[in-house]
Design a protein that fits this description.
By secondary structure, the protein is α/β, with parallel strands linked by helices. About 35% of the residues lie in helices and about 25% in strands.
């Protein structure tokens, strides 16, 4: 398979709040993601996971090394990537349909063929019948479905996910995890997820990348040998829990 993301010797330094001492967020990170692969990044809180994800998207500059997407050097955000943020950040004056199609409207790509694909996407993420609702009329789970659909609507090569289910309750989170697994199986989009939830990472992923404490370095990459499709029983099964324990122990190791 082709490499969709290739990060080599990536270091990221940024200024702290109120222009304090520089923060060394990532140090010499090497990471690759293959085409159609689902990869998650886990690590201690504040270790630099989201910083690295934003660097892959092109939102943050890097200070050393290089990041390539589809062999192209990343210097800014691009149409080949879509970033799904932790908070839905939907436009309150636009309906579900209006939010999902907003990026396409800006590009001038709302032709009939595209609209038909969006209708299928709305059904895929479980929003059929809610197209004319406004964000204030949606539950947190429905808002995140809209957020996810908005990212998929622009048909990126790579979907970058920054803790997309962190703001919903535990029951909704599990349901959304199942739905995301089904969406990945249907679309086979390359996905890179940052999460604090180790079980979520194992359940969704082909591989889990474990970062050290800040500055983030790759401590270990875990291949997840759990057959797909995965169910709620998989999520709470002994095999997945063994992976969770192994990864937790790696995170707890001193840097």
């Amino acid at each position: 398979m082709d490499k969709k993301i290739s990060a080599r010797n990536v270091s990221v330094i940024y200024r702290g709040k109120f222009n304090q001492e520089p923060v060394f967020a990532c140090e010499r990170v090497d990471l690759e993601v293959e085409e159609r692969e689902f990869v998650s990044i886990v690590g201690p809180s504040g270790c630099g996971k989201t910083t690295f994800l934003y660097a892959v998207d092109g939102l943050l500059p890097i200070n050393a090394g290089e990041i390539r997407v589809n062999t192209n050097l990343v210097t800014a955000p691009g149409a080949d990537r879509a970033l799904v943020f932790q908070n839905a950040s939907l436009l309150p004056w636009r309906t579900v349909w209006g939010n999902i199609t907003y990026g396409l409207k800006l590009r001038g790509e709302l032709d009939q063929e595209t609209l038909s694909k969006i209708e299928s996407l709305v059904e895929l993420v479980g929003l059929k019948g809610f197209e004319n609702r406004y964000p204030s009329q949606l539950s947190g789970g429905m808002q995140q479905r809209t957020n996810l659909a908005r990212g998929l609507a622009v048909n990126p090569d790579i979907l970058l996910l920054d803790e997309p289910f962190a703001s919903v309750d535990a029951q909704t989170r599990e349901k959304l995890q199942l739905e995301l697994a089904a969406i990945w199986a249907r679309t086979r989009k390359t996905m890179l997820l940052v999460t604090h939830d180790i079980a979520e990472a194992v359940f969704l992923s082909d591989r889990v990348v474990v970062f050290t404490a800040r500055p983030a370095r790759v401590r270990e990459v875990i291949q997840v040998a759990i057959p797909r499709p995965r169910s709620i029983e998989t999520k709470h099964g002994a095999l997945l829990q063994d992976y969770v324990t192994r990864i937790w122990n790696l995170i707890e190791l001193p840097s």
